[in-house]
Amino acid sequence: MVEKTSVLFQLLAICFCSSLALSSENYQGGKWKLLKRSIGISAMHMALLPNDRIITFDRSDFGPSNITLPQGKCNLQTSSSDCYAHAVEFDPATRNVRPLTILTDTWCSSGALSPEGVLVQSGGYGLGERVVRYLKPCLNCDWKEDPNGLVSPRWYASNQILPNDYTNHRVIRKYPVLPGGVSRNYPSTGSSVLLPVTLSSSKTDTTTTPPDAEVLICGGTLPDSNQKADAGVFVPASKSCGRLKITSENPNWEMEEMPLNRVMGDMILLPTGDVLIINGAAKGTAGWGVAREPVLNPVLYHTINPIIGVKKINRFEILSPSTIPRLYHSTAHLLSDGRVLVGGSNPNINYNFSTNYPTDLSLEVFYPPYLMSNNNKSRPLITAIKPGVLLEYKQEILIEFEPRGDDLAYVGDNNIYATMVAPSFTTHSFSMNQRVLVLAMDGVSVGVGKASSRNHIVRVQAPTSGAVAPPGHYQLFVVHEGTPSKAMWVQIKGS
Ligand SMILES: *[C@@H]1O[C@H](CO)[C@@H](O)[C@H](O)[C@H]1NC(C)=O
Ligand SMILES: *[C@@H]1O[C@H](CO)[C@@H](O)[C@H](O)[C@H]1NC(C)=O
Ligand SMILES: *[C@@H]1O[C@H](CO)[C@@H](O)[C@H](O)[C@H]1NC(C)=O
Asked: Which residue in 133, 148, 222, 273 has the most C-beta neighbors within 10 A?
């Protein structure tokens, strides 16, 4: 894939500056809040560490950013010495920004959290294309770079944590082509997720059948849209989504239609198992200044709703709009408190604050509808995880929680579940390693031996193996009547 750098300037002369923002009268469509007007860099890549710090970085060959390297350092490897930081750590709780040192180019690179919780980031562009970089989740840690970490150069790569025993080297299934003729990859960028995987208890199910897995791919645009955008014609993006049960013997795509057209959207799995489709544009494509009509409204995809009627739209819900366009090089990431952090957008060459879609250095959060006041009162609070947060496969876990609210809402098997969310690494409209596991549940009971009668216990089972949950850190949530708790971090030990 080659990015076109030559087409930007002529295109900006033609401006359709409208953007799509369907306003919502109340806040039931969620709400937005600006967390930081400038973090000093444009958030092209984003990851969450187990200490709840966001690590975000840009490419590092784009000249000055708006934040300098720590301790007055300068990068002497570049032709003109660069004293600017291109990576920062952000604390969503305090909104503190700490500049970090990356000396090689990370443009369009990939990453994942190692089982120990270290952010491993790989590849990039130019001198960075074979570099592997490590960042530990600690107070004043900075990047360590291994210049020859990769055997082959990797630009626009992706990372996925695999189970330790992944050794068969066999193609297991071939899938049918997604119908409709829409392209989903750069520059016709769509997005995709592995939908929540529902685990069954090894106590009741002694077979070794793996759980069903489904993928959902949404948005994108026709294959020639980028050529047309280069010529000044901005084609509407696609509304289509395809959903495929990848574990079926003969799977078929189930096609659905989003209520809004979208290219360059991000798809973020929420702790409830629903999918937030956010960021991007309604016309044009990814790339340099070739998108129009930013889509400011996220759309919620209700994963388990059945499809009713010919229009097939009842799984989708249009949510409250932001005011900030998030186009090429923008990102989104789930936080442990259930909010979604959104940043980035730089369809320009270098940092340019005077184009129609200026380089954006801000971070904002979206509060999904489950955090709004009418639901808020039933937001559960996890008080303890027993025997502890270090988990072994198949182990029984007791999650103690308090349902919130004035009146003790009924708590029962049918309105409680627990999920584990694997933190992802997001860039270019894709969240690598993103996964939600719905844990097998053995029951809910009112806690005993506690002063508070609110105390409840949900008994769940840890995932059965590395095939469904590779070793590493996960955010554990309890969901009560559709409202998730804040996450507690747990770690599955490697075997
Ligand atoms: C920003 O982009 C505009 C429009 O393409 C261009 O005229 C201007 O020179 C750019 N500014 C910088 C600082 O690169
Ligand atoms: C970034 O720095 C430039 C140059 O100093 C300045 O013009 C611009 O307003 C700054 N942007 C933000 C968002 O702070
Ligand atoms: C939700 O509840 C918390 C704690 O009671 C409160 O601080 C917060 O303002 C509430 N949020 C909304 C949207 O009402």
From this structure: 133
Cβ–ligand 1 distance for 352 under 6 Å, the answer yes
Within a domain: residue 442?
A: yes
When divided into structural domains, the chain yields a total of 1
φ/ψ of 186, rounded to 5, equals: -55, 135
* Ligand 1 center–CA 65 separation, angstroms: 15
Is residue 393 one of the residues assigned to a domain?
A: yes
Q: Does the beta carbon of 9 sit less than 6 angstroms from any atom of ligand 2?
A: no
In this structure, what token pair is assigned to residue 3? 């990015």
Dump strand ranges (E) for 230-315. Answer: 240-245, 254-257, 266-269, 275-278, 281-284, 291-294, 299-301
Interatomic CA distance for residues 189 and 209, integer angstroms: 34
* Cα-based distances in Å from 215 to 223, 269, 272, 353, 434: 22, 12, 16, 38, 12
Query: Residue 403: which CATH number?
Result: 2.60.40.10
- Name the residue at shortest CA distance from atom 4 of ligand 1: 355
**pTM for this structure?**
0.91
Residues of the chain with pLDDT under 50: 1-17, 23-25, 407
First to last CA, the chain: 38
Which bound ligand lies closest to the C-alpha atom of 354? 1
For residue 450, what are the domain limits?
A: 381-492
Per the listing, tokens 């507690």 go with 488
Q: Tell me which ligand sits closest to the C-alpha of residue 13.
A: 1
Cα–Cα nearest to 344, from 336, 333, 335:
333
DSSP letter string over 85-113?
--EEEEETTTTEEEEE---S--TT-EEEE
H-state helical runs in 163-296: 225-230
